[in-house]
Design brief:
Rossmann fold
């Protein structure tokens, strides 16, 4: 179920066969049904609206019926509109002008006018004008594609009302819509009959119209995301038509998904129709969901030699500051950032304007800082992997505590982190161990990673419940272990979420985690149950550490 304060409006174009119902449906008490409205002047421009019975703002979906551009009934989509409204959408099903009296691009003008009408009446229908989707089947699918693929193309707007409004949509679900009319003949049982009526002639006599009316020729980087649902045994619109569209959309970087219904013909029925509808719901839930608040995160990009401020979850780069391939970063209050610099052997704090305000480095004897943590008392905990020691230094750069161990030297360790109780967790990557040392420098707890040294533990963090989170490799995994060393939770290694090498862990409000999968080239957010929420492919970046900006 889509649970949103604001619900997007979905526009659906389909056929009675897709819905499997033609009798007027009963209207449930939890929705409002407003039939026989018009989005333009004239009997051809009818629209029925179904919306949740509340005063919240919802996303919207426009539904466009099919029928070979020459027939069809918008009311065949009322059952779907009702189900959409019950899921938290404002749903509308529209009529449009039909061939042969009205030929291309008249129906495109009409459905664009319908979207503009929805936006113009957003307050009346309690819909969010920034979150409108469209769906349709067969001819309706083709018209839905035109809405998604031609934002801002003036020749398809027509001269209908509300031209001050945009006809752009945010997502398209296309059921077996034709995408290239120049390839329909001989591959469809009725193309030779239908297309001349819609396009003013057959391919031989009206080729320019066939080209202009083919959605595939209007794909651009401005197109909306598309889900195509198509049966492999479709006798009316060849399955390959959707394959061609997917290739073209992906070529220009538009999110495109093809749901293949093996053995299905045109006009889904029974279990196939049910599966297709669930795909539709999931797609609109994804692309018309209320925008989540972006938060700023920090990342140490070892490959590029920079600390970056990123907007999450979009991944937009907000700023970059060089760190000479340093490994660690931590957000501090007031927009300050603490990070390590390599090979200049420094730990630097910069302010919100990216000016250095504190440094600790080679002048103080530091040789290879691999991690740095600002402590609640204002001191800084620094791990020097070359010397094999962890030091706590105050603002005056004086060492107030240190722990040295030859087992940590010569780049054997990774991060060190202070726990809330004042002990220090140290990841010894070379031996596959985590050790915990107290203020006196005594090792009071050891965890040996299952699998030994190949697990390459990169970091460990103490949780409020006393357990410890550890990032591992080979296979990539985040484990939560108790004091006895027993694994009580594992994140990764499932079909849903496979990791390579977890080098960064940041705890999020609500119990979720932000993970840096260094060699997997991803940033990943999981919820409090370890389930994948979202991920961002990082390409050539090598993220060694992540943190929330404070």
């Amino acid at each position: 179920m889509l649970s949103l304060r604001r619900v997007a409006f979905l526009i659906s174009a389909g056929t009675a066969l897709l819905l499997g119902q033609t009798a007027p449906p009963a209207i449930p008490s939890n929705v409002i049904f407003e039939p026989n409205l018009t989005y333009a002047e004239g009997p051809e421009f009818g629209v029925d609206v179904v919306r949740p019975r509340d005063n919240e703002t919802h996303p919207a979906v426009l539904c466009i019926h099919g029928g070979g551009f020459r027939a069809g009934d918008r009311q065949s989509y009322l059952p779907l509109c009702i189900r959409l409204a019950q899921r938290g959408y404002v749903a509308a099903t529209v009529s449009y002008r039909l061939a042969p009296k009205y030929q291309f691009p008249a129906p495109v003008h009409d459905v664009k006018a319908a979207v503009r009408w929805l936006r113009a009446n957003a307050e009346k229908f309690h819909l969010d004008p920034t979150r409108i989707g469209v769906t349709g089947g067969s001819a309706g699918g083709t018209l839905a594609l035109f809405l998604g693929l031609t934002p801002g193309v003036q020749e398809f707007e027509g001269d209908g009302p509300n031209l001050d409004q945009s006809s752009r949509v945010s997502a398209v679900v296309d059921y077996y819509g034709a995408t290239d009319f120049t390839k329909s003949y001989g591959k469809s049982v009725d193309a030779a009959e239908v297309l001349p009526q819609f396009l003013g002639g057959d391919l031989e006599h009206a080729r320019p119209a066939h080209i202009r009316a083919s959605p595939i020729n209007w794909v651009s980087p401005s197109s909306a995301p598309v889900l195509a649902v198509h049966g492999t045994n479709d006798r009316y619109v060849e399955y390959a038509q959707s394959l061609w569209l997917m290739d073209r959309l992906k070529l220009v970087g538009i999110p495109a998904e093809l749901a293949t219904m093996e053995g299905a013909d045109h006009g889904f029925r029974g279990d196939v129709a049910s599966r297709a509808e669930q795909l539709l719901f999931a797609y609109f839930d994804k692309y018309l969901a209320e925008p989540k608040t972006e938060r700023t995160i920090l990342a140490a990009n070892r490959a590029a030699g920079e600390v970056m401020g990123l907007s999450w979850p979009s991944g937009k780069v907000l700023w970059r500051v060089g760190n000479e391939h340093g490994n660690d970063v931590q957000g501090l209050p007031g927009g300050h950032v603490l990070y390590t610099v390599d090979p200049h052997f420094q730990v630097v704090e910069m302010d919100e304007k990216h000016h250095p305000v504190w440094e600790y480095g080679s002048a103080e004897g530091l040789q290879r800082p691999v991690s740095a943590q600002r402590l609640p008392n204002g001191n800084t905990l620094i791990a020097d992997a070359f010397q094999g020691k962890v030091v706590e230094v105050n603002r005056g750069r004086r060492i107030v505590w240190q722990y040295a161990n030859p087992d940590l030297a010569e780049m054997r360790m990774r991060q060190a982190r202070r726990t809330p109780t004042g002990t220090t967790l140290i990841a010894i990557e070379s031996t596959g161990k985590i050790i915990e040392v107290d203020a006196a420098g005594k090792i009071i707890w050891t965890y040996d990673a299952v699998g030994g040294a190949k697990r390459l533990p990169y970091l460990a963090q103490r949780l409020p419940n006393g357990n410890t989170l550890i990032g591992l490799a080979d296979p990539g995994e985040v484990v939560e272990v108790d004091k006895s060393g027993k694994i009580v939770r594992s994140i990764g290694g499932t079909a849903e979420l496979k990791l390579s090498w977890v080098s960064g862990i940041e705890m999020l409000p609500g119990g979720g985690l932000l993970l840096a999968d260094s060699t997997g080239k991803r940033l990943i957010e999981v919820d409090a149950n370890g389930k994948l929420v979202r991920e961002l492919a990082t390409g050539n970046w090598d993220i060694a550490s992540v943190s929330l900006a404070r």
